[in-house]
Amino acid sequence: MLPKPLLYILFLLVSFGAKASFILLPMDETTQQNHLKAYGITYWCLDKNYKASWLLNYRGGSFLLPDATEIRKECQIRGVSFEILSDGEEAAILNEISSPSQNMETVILEKAPKIAVYTPKGKHPWDDAVTLVLTYAEIPFTPIYDEEVLNDQLLLYDWLHLHHEDFTGQYGKFYGAYKNAPWYLEQKATSEALATQLGYSKVSQEKGAVAKKIRDFVVGGGFMFAMCSATDSFDIALAADGVDICEAMFDGDASEANYQSKLNYGNSFAFKNFTLERKPEQYEFSDIDMTQKRRIPMEKDYFTLMEFSAKWDPIPSMLCQNHTQLVKGFMGQTTAFDPEFIKSNVLILGTCELNGEARYIHGEKGKGMFTFYSGHDPEDFQHQVGDPATVLDLHPNSPGYRLILNNVLFPAAKKKKQKT
Prior knowledge:
2 domains, Rossmann fold, single chain, Asparagine synthetase B, nine-stranded mixed beta sheet, alpha/beta
């Protein structure tokens, strides 16, 4: 028989083990009442130096957090569903996930990434789905623009978002429909003044310099997430480095002769062999985009998330975590990517079964990574200039917005070497 002091210590240890508990944020379709804010809770925990795990493919990609009174309270305040697990229940879940027969994996989240959103001053939140969902999920971010980028302030951040931007100096190709609109004229004048202030004679040159700084940020180990026209216009700006592709109404002089043949596709991140749209009146940058090629009615417009091995390919698995594999399609200036022009080393994460177009792609550049997500607003099928903001309280379980937030938390993960 053990001495009394040892029995007392053993009793304390057993009691402590029995009381040890965890918080599970379930992310399946039926249990979680607010998927989007669940990401915000997880970010908040990381920011407060709590440990967190992402349970890939377990109940829709659930989050495992330590049990603490303030975490429970925060979940209640934000309307996030949570479950309390005993030490034994947590061990059973992790054991199930680790089984070779299960396509699941536990990924440790190490720290809250520092987030920058590339956006001009005075831009409305509803002009950018990422700004909108970050605000809704209560995930802090810092707005930055050309001056900060050119002054190397990207070094302060882990994750950078680009949205409805034009890095080619053609003012979003809005000329045909909006050349006389006050907002367009103001945007053009403001852009020209900023370029001059920063020491460039043309907006296209200044935006090209910004694109190259962003490229360097990724190559150096940063994470970049782009949506809508920021995706193809960014790659076009890199491919057209040193080549004048802008017509006179954009930069005051004619474009360079035979500029198409002078593009360097080796400079671009995701796209190759594309042909630029020469007409300044055409609301299109190139044939990368599928907007004019597709004939898909709204009621049939969905794309399917690819399934990856969580244990062998945790990176694409993280990016595709959702409570459904079928996501509603949505349009934008860049609605979808023609797979013919996607580089072979870029991973396609989401495709439309009806025409094979790519909606969601991911790749590596240098030490960093990038994700391109086509379309403008996951809960607004065809967003028009001047349309009201999307109210995310009406879409707290949006699969399309979840993909954005997967990318926000992705840099927090302790990285494992991708096998594919």
